[in-house]
Amino acid sequence: xxxxxxxxxxxxxxxxxxxxxxxxITNIDIINExxxxxxxxxxxxxSKNEIIRYSEEQIDQQIVxxxxxxxxxxxxxxxxxxxxxxxxxKTAIPIVYQNRDQIRILHGSDVNEIWRHYLEIHxxxxxxxxxxxxxxxxxxxxxxxxxxxxxxxxxxxxxxxxAEFQKRFKELLESKLLINKx
Length: 182
What we know:
This protein has helices spanning 2-17, 27-34, 38-44, 48-74, 81-98, 100-108, 112-130, 136-155, 162-173. It is mainly alpha-helical. The chain folds into two domains: 1-46, Arc Repressor Mutant, subunit A (Orthogonal Bundle), CATH 1.10.10; 49-173. The radius of gyration is 18 Å and the shape is elongated. Residues 14-52 form the HTH tetR-type domain.
């Protein structure tokens, strides 16, 4: 029941954020839209920001888990930029595609800056561990570029299919501009 209630609240919030500004949405609006009690709402969330954070973390956990699982399955000895791009495109693109409606709403609403900030900070920490010798500017540029490419893809009225996007995504990320090829 807990997961079902949480899902109802998140879906209600996403529905509302798709209709109006986050500033105009109250917790009562979300409670009414989700058709849950105040107690149920406050048991799971205390604010709109908690709902946003929960949504972000759910998608992010799926991506990170899939990436680690694939990395271990392939038994790669070193996480080079090329290996990172290959595994990321295999694991993240399907998850983004499965969650495209939710991501499209987050990218297309005034929550967008909160969402992008979360992604940039979180993935910067990961990338910094993977590439400790790379400069901060390069890592931040790479993350912003990935976010922009995915955002453009997912926000299209009819996004290209997953397989075609994976191919183009890899080509874009493997360009000399983004990966230091020796």
